[in-house]
Amino acid sequence: MTERRAKKLGLFDLMEMYPTKESAIDYLGRMRWGDTVHCVRCGNYEGITPQEKPYGKFWCKFCREYFNCFTDTPLYRQKINDPRKWIYACYLLMTARKGISALQLKTELKVNYNTAWYMLHRLRVACGSNMEVLRGEIEVDETYIGGKEANKHESKKLKQGRGTVGKQAVLGMKQRDGAVKATVIDTPSQANIHPTIYAHVEHGSTLYTDEHKGYDGLDGVFYKQKRVNHSAKQYVDGMAHTNSIESVWAVLKRGYYGTYHNWSMKHCRAYVDEFVFRLNEGNVKRDTQDRLDDLFRSMGGKEITYKDLTSSV
Predict the structure, then answer these.
(1) Which site among 137, 230, 297, 309 is 20 to 30 Å from 40 CA-CA?
(2) 3-state helix, strand, coil in the chain (%, to 5)
(3) In the structure, what pLDDT confidence band is assigned to residue 311 with cuts at 50, 70 and 90?
(4) Main-chain dihedrals φ then ψ at residue 128, nearest 5 degrees
(5) Does the predicted TM-score (pTM) go above 0.70?
(6) What is residue 150's three-state secondary structure?
(7) Beta strand segments in the chain, E
(8) How much is the CA Rg of the chain, to the nearest whole Å?
(9) Closest Cα to residue 132, out of 173, 185, 189?
(10) How far is 106 from 216, CA to CA, in rounded Å?
């Protein structure tokens, strides 16, 4: 039996599917509330009145509020006058394996840099909050994100420490033949690693880790643990290895160094969420349209303001 191949969309396909602003709004509306419009504020299906202008705006007589497909999503209160630009931006975000920079998006959409930067961060908010629990055989590993000291100007080099100093730690978990989860942590210590694993990996699973001390004590009541000793040049021991999660780090770092070149550590969690979402949705058997649909469907309840995005964290 021939295995089904995913249907891929090109940019020309996208233009034909959404030739007008109205067609784009209709699509975004279907992703938001399905075939029947309902109030995204109070949930009522009755008493919804479409407004003549602008297209796609509705009035709810129960909560007496206006709403549209963007309300209570990361795309709310935005000034992009053509909703097709959001679909195009999502297409680029989901199909560029190593991500797309705000500078490139600026050129593609003919917007200014600040608008492109804000658009991408709004979409990254939609990529977060994956509640799926991993189970079975799980590879766990940590990595560090940040600029290389050798490439920095002399005045910006850290005067002490090496390797991981000044970088952001990220903990990743990969279910073999399954989903990826990753999150930033302060330091790769047991106090940070253990609670993160407990929160995202089902009890009874088998953990594959390296010899890092942060993974000590995981083999016992809740998990089985098998380890490889990377410092002793041991990378595979039977079924024990972390090759799959390390391939995730390879993609993440190619994006950091090759596409973005640098990003603010304040927003590191958002960038990690973007890469994880794209990898989880990027199964070669999944149609491009299905991947876009999942991103738009995930936006409900994730409204964010510019002040929230740019304030200190």
Answers:
(1) 309
(2) 40, 15, 45
(3) confident
(4) -85, 180
(5) yes
(6) helix
(7) 48-50, 58-60, 65-67, 137-145, 168-175, 180-185, 206-209, 224-227
(8) 22
(9) 173
(10) 46
Any idea how long the chain is? 313
pLDDT classification of 313: cutoffs 50, 70, 90: very low
Angle at 70 between CA 65 and CA 71, to 5 degrees: 30
Q: How many helices, marked H, and strands, marked E, lie in the chain? A: 10, 8
Confidence of residue 177 (pLDDT cuts 50, 70, 90): confident
Q: State the alpha helices, DSSP H only, in 38-189.
A: 84-95, 102-109, 113-127
User: 3-state class of 178 per DSSP?
Assistant: coil
Please report which confidence band the pLDDT of residue 81 belongs to, taking 50, 70 and 90 as the band edges: confident
Q: Is the pLDDT of residue 102 over 60?
A: yes
Helix (H) or strand (E) holding 254: helix 243-254
Which tokens hold the place of 294? 């999942």
